[in-house]
Design a protein that fits this description.
The protein is of the alpha/beta class. It has one domain: TIM Barrel. The chain is globular, with a radius of gyration of 16 Å. The two termini are 25 Å apart. Bound molecules: pyridoxal-5'-phosphate (PLP). Pyridoxal-5'-phosphate binds next to β8 and α9.
């Protein structure tokens, strides 16, 4: 991460490592926290909640990075600090209504669908501005930025192109009056390209912990 930041002339501190611990047991989270990692991501709600409970004694910041089902928003709103994959207004409205009033605002990223892969979820680029405006107006949420899971690319140039597109979309929103500061992009296979294109959060699982279930 530091080398990629340096290549782009960026301060390494401007990129947060979000350790994605899905399929990893609580002991692995604890060991990673002992190494100084503070941000942890989970994709499956039940599994994630069990780990939050098991790690209650640690001051960690939990991110929900998976797809969000409308009937399961309440525990996300109550227990997590960030959600990365909001792609519908209905989900954001439920999270806003269910965020406890005494808690800090829930940090929200909108997932953008790049490359027409309908199976991956995300809002289409041409519907992004409308969704961003609506979500920014909801109480108890803080719209922070954009997230993507681009098609898997082996070629660095093609990885760069997807991430540049997400950065362009963020800049367009900010040009229209938004004040977004977060690009959640880059996973184990492409986090270096993402950092070079401006990622502020990289979501890394297997590169830290090895293959899931392996
Ligand atoms: C699993 C997952 C990751 C981490 O993927 P790796 O390839 O293991 O680094 C990142 N983001 C999301 C949304 C995930 O579901």
């Amino acid at each position: 991460m530091a080398r990629a930041a340096a290549r782009a002339g960026r301060n390494a501190q401007s990129v947060t490592l979000l350790a994605v611990t899905k399929a990893q047991p609580p002991e692995v989270v604890r060991a990673a926290a002992d190494c100084g990692i503070e941000h942890f991501g989970e994709s499956y709600l039940q599994e994630g909640l069990e780990k939050l409970d098991a790690l209650r004694d640690r001051a960690l910041t939990w991110h929900f990075v998976g797809r969000i089902q409308a009937n399961k928003t309440r525990p996300i709103a109550e227990r997590f600090a960030w959600v990365h994959a909001v792609d519908r207004l209905k989900i954001a409205q439920r999270l806003a209504a269910q965020r406890p009033p005494h808690a800090a605002p829930l940090n929200v990223c909108l997932q953008v669908r790049l490359g027409d892969e309908a199976s991956k979820g995300g809002v289409a680029a041409d519907e992004l501005a409308g969704l961003a405006r609506a979500v920014a107006g909801l109480p108890r949420l803080k719209l922070r930025g954009l997230m993507c899971i681009p098609p898997e690319e082996r070629e660095a140039a093609r990885q760069h192109a997807w991430f540049r597109e997400l950065r362009r979309l963020l800049a367009a929103l900010n040009g229209g009056g938004a004040a977004l500061d977060t690009l959640s992009m880059g996973m184990s296979g492409d986090f270096e390209a993402a950092i070079e294109e401006g990622a502020t959060i990289v979501r890394v699982g297997t590169a830290l912990f090895g293959p899931r279930g392996g």
